[in-house]
Amino acid sequence: MSEPSGREALAERVRALEDDRDLRALLVRGWRALDAGDWDTWIDCWTPDAVLEFGPWREIRGRDAIRDTVREAESGYATMQHHILNVAFEVRGDRASGIGYMWFVAVPEPGMRATPYAMGGPYDWEFVRTAAGWRLARQRLGVWWETGEDPTGAFDGDAG
Question: Where is the SnoaL-like domain (predicted)?
Answer without folding.
Answer: 15-138
